[in-house]
Amino acid sequence: MRKRHPNKYTNMKGMRRMKKLCVALLLLSVMTGSAIAAYPEKNPQGYIMWGAGGAMDNVARAITPIAQQHLGKTIILQNKTGATGAIATTFVANQPADGYSLLFGAENPNLYKVAGLSQIDYDQLDPVLLMMANVGVVVVAKDSPYKTYKDFIDAAMSGKTISVGSTGPGGLAFVATTMIEKIHGMKFNKIQFDGEGPCITALMGGHIDAVAVGLLAAANFIKSGSVRGLAMISTERIPGMDVPAVTEAYKEYGPYLPWGAFFGVFVRKETPKEAFDALQAAYLKAYEDPKFDEFAKSMGGVKLGLTGDKARAYIKQNQSVSAWLLYDAGGAKFSPADFGIPRPQSK
Amino acid sequence: MAQNLQYFLIPFLQPEMMLLIWVGVFAGIWVGAIPGLSVTMAASLLISFTFSWDINSALALICGVFVGGVYGGAITAILINIPGAPAAIATAMDGYPLAQMGEAGKAIGLCTTVSVFASFVGIVVLAVAAPVIANFSLKFAPRDFFLLAVMGLLLIGSIGGGDPIKGITAGAVGVLLSMVGMDPSTGELRYTFGNLYLMAGISFVTAMIGLFGVSEALTQFRSSGMKSPKQNLDRIIPSWATFLKYLPLSLRSALLGVFIGALPGTGGDVAALLAYDQAKRSTKHPSRPFGKGALEGIIAPETANKGAIGGAFIPMLTLGIPGDAVTAIIIGALFIHGLKPGPMLMIETPHLFWMIVSCLSIASVALMVLGLISVKPFAKIIEIPKEIVMPVVIILSVIGTYAIQNSVVDIFYMIGFGIIGYFLRLYGYATGPMVLGLILGPMLDANYRRTMQGAENQILPFLQGFVTSPISLFLTLSIVFLLFSQTATYRRWRGLE
């Protein structure tokens, strides 16, 4: 174009043409924008941050087949593991914000910043739905001398060495144990295992004295009497579980609660509203499906069903408790204050 | 009893389940044979796929894939020296030399027969002694897993090639590479240089595909002009005499496999490696020297990894604790179908136990038939010119690697390992010890640390544990004996007998 019209006048004309072109492009983009309103037009991809067979994986694979019936497209699930979920979180945060990349995430990203692992966490994502909570429970072997939570704490306070299982700094077991240590002012001997399942295996084999794990991992072992549940780390008892709430014995836990792991579906911030709403509607319908109820009950999970601001508040509360506990225990590289994470407030 | 028999017969009375088991075994053989495609992966895909099905049908398919998949790994190990799965690493040591001598048909035939036998050994132990073994396996402390890993490392002597220094070097590099990523104990980052993808660590399957698959393909290109050995396919099924001759070894390795499989967290790969080492040390007069086509070198690992299938179900069905990665996924599947895997499974849904026993039995029979039928077509693969087979291997390696965790970065790792492996071989280093180091490194590291943490980081209580616990004492003495049996003093003494 420039070769044919080298003079100033035609350049002006060219500019005007450019303007027209711009308007046309803008219109086109608005039109394609409205085409996105027909979400979903292709199969969304779901990335699960933990490996096959784990609790996160089970929750994702239980709810998604129901949700996709309501969505009208198949959601292709895959496990993208590594660095406690930071790989999957970073990946989804770097995909286009079009609602075609879903993250199935647990509470782990809440600690990425203080652990110095990654700067990308739930601040870059929006919760579509928090499906389930995983409340902590302190368990001992079935032949353990500790019959109640008070027995257990008294023994630990008397200076006896008590070995407890852990799944690594930032894991539910580690944070719960740190919470107990901080409240009662004592120390456990922590032994590291590959996950909550192996912790329970070690407990049953007599290789550790106690462990605080998520109820999802422990429910069936408690119900069958293979291990003994001493206390739920929550303010109230969980229906169907014959385990007292920790606040029944010690009120001091109050400010830290409610606290627990959670499982949710996330998409990138700035995802078009149509896409976000369609996904949320599909997952909410699946959440209310009796089939998912049955699944939640058999696993021992507490249904959450939080969306929007409530979901955000739940995530922030978990982050505040976990990050500060980890930091105070010397397990964090950076202070939560550096990232504007407030200390847990007493209520 | 009559009740249990009724449960056992469930799959026999449902043609659909029967069909699914056979389909599963057939698909499993292929999944197992392709490097990178694993039973674990297939099982987790099947869970989404079978979501709307009846749980019985889903389990039938998964059991079929499990049995077929563990077997399939041996096919490529024998034919092209590329183990399709970690459980078949040891099988390649003697299987490939046999194929080079034109005996691939015989090797696969023998492998199939003893595999089916071992699979039944595992099933019988599962059916008869599950609760006893499950409770015993719980007694294995972190210290004992540490000792098992040490025992596994001694295998470097068997698969390290001629030069011990080179074998140990390759093994040490493997252990070192396994340390990359997050420290399992403190979460501290090791050798990651601030890179998020290094934080995820190096998956040993990725390394295995590179070191065995791509590096083998590259090595074979060097000899591309050479004619492939003509395969003798007359006697595929081993004679009764052969079968009976190797029966004691088969039974011993299968039982070892059942037990290692029943230990939570260890599966067919560790079982097969330990069995190979054990066979090499205990066989006085192998059919040919080990590493040069000894039939014992195929029988031991293949019976151990099949025995481990039944073994892995033992803690899963009795305690709700997975024996390996595949049973961990099956536990997830049961949850999703609204069942309660765990100690209550046997009480609330007793039919599941006998149904799984039955599915595994049918799958083993299917393996016999499908395995033997496919010996001839499989053995023909070896006669296809390398210029055609090896590029296919490389393509499959790339696909398989990507499929592990949908990561493009893993493909680069895999190719990197392939090139490293090529040069290692060129300079006379075996790649086996490196993979061994990668598999056993995390087991060694995590369990040593756990034992130390249990002893509150005190050296004396740490050492005491090795002699005060009966299991640890037995394992420690076994290792001491294994080492001592290699000394000149011991050999002279045995020689004088």
* Tally of DSSP helical segments of chain A: 10
The proportion of strand residues of chain A reads: 15-25%
Radius of gyration of chain A: 25 Å
Tell me the radius of gyration of chain B.
22 Å
Percentage beta strand of chain B: under 5%
Q: Strand arrangement, largest sheet of chain B?
A: 1-2
**Which regions of chain A are unreliable across 5 or more consecutive residues at pLDDT < 50?**
1-10, 30-36
Q: Structural class of the secondary structure composition of chain B?
A: mainly alpha
Number of alpha- plus pi-helical segments of chain B? 26
- Count of all domains of chain B: 2
Describe this structure in words.
- The complex is a heterodimer of chains A (347) and B (497).
- With 347 residues, chain A is of the alpha/beta class.
- Chain A is built from 10 helices and 10 strands.
- Chain A has helices at residues 8-36, 55-71, 86-93, 149-157, 172-184, 196-204, 215-223, 273-288, 290-299, 308-328; strands at residues 45-48, 76-79, 101-105, 125-141, 163-166, 189-192, 210-214, 227-232, 260-268, 302-306.
- In chain A, strands 1, 2, 3, 4, 5, 6, 7, 8, 9 and 10 form a 10-stranded mixed beta sheet that branches.
- In chain B, strand 1 (181-182) and strand 2 form a beta hairpin.
- Chain B folds into 2 domains: 2-454, no CATH class; 461-497, no CATH class.
- The longest helix of chain B has 35 residues, at 104-138.
- The termini of chain B are far apart.
- Chain B has a two-stranded antiparallel ribbon with strand order 1-2.
- At the A-B interface, helix 2, strand 2, helix 3, strand 6 and helix 6 of A face helix 4, strand 1, helix 11, helix 17 and helix 23 of B.
